[in-house]
């Protein structure tokens, strides 16, 4: 190694300044090329691992809950929906449920509390403290509305609402929006009428001035 180093030193001494610079650049390029090859060899296993397809498990329970939810398919006009089919499931909304509990535990509490009302098809979480209960027949909904109003589930007082109440609220909101639009239109018409009156008055004044000048 010492002989090689001395030979390279002698070789550099015998070269001109331009040749030494060119030789140094060549050596630097070779070193960079070697480093790049080593880096590619290290990165290739990681890239293969990242490119490998990741298999995702289907959450059948979540899919079933989404299908059973009244919010799952909004295209149907029927107020009650179950598994994407209108007119099969009958739903009530429960508000005021305990919060901060695991869903399986809360679902069990709801099923035990409402089980006497009728056959429960599904209990679907809506948001924290709220859930939809889908019964197999409409009489169970009526029983739940009559007997479970202001009942306690997990120490919390709940209220039971039917889906029609929500539809009525939506209709009221639509009516309010329509009334606001009508009011805006009336205001615009009134402003236009005032502008027309002002223009007519200005024209009359101009005509009077012209007559006086004549």
Written account of the structure:
The strands form three sheets. The protein has a four-stranded antiparallel beta sheet, sandwiched between helices. It has a two-stranded antiparallel ribbon with strand order 1-2. It has a two-stranded antiparallel ribbon with strand order 6-7. It has 214 residues and is an alpha+beta fold. A hairpin with a 2-residue loop joins strand 1 (81-82) and strand 2 (85-86). Residues 65-88 have low confidence and may be disordered. The radius of gyration is 40 Å and the shape is flat. It has a domain at 77-167: 2-Layer Sandwich (Alpha-Beta Plaits). The longest helix has 51 residues, at 163-213. Helices cover 61% and strands 15% of the residues.
Topology at a glance:
Blueprint: H1 2-14, H2 17-51, H3 60-68, E1 81-82, E2 85-86, E3 90-95, H4 103-114, E4 120-127, E5 130-135, H5 138-147, E6 152-153, E7 156-157, E8 159-162, H6 163-213
Antiparallel strand pairs: 1-2, 3-5, 3-8, 4-5, 6-7
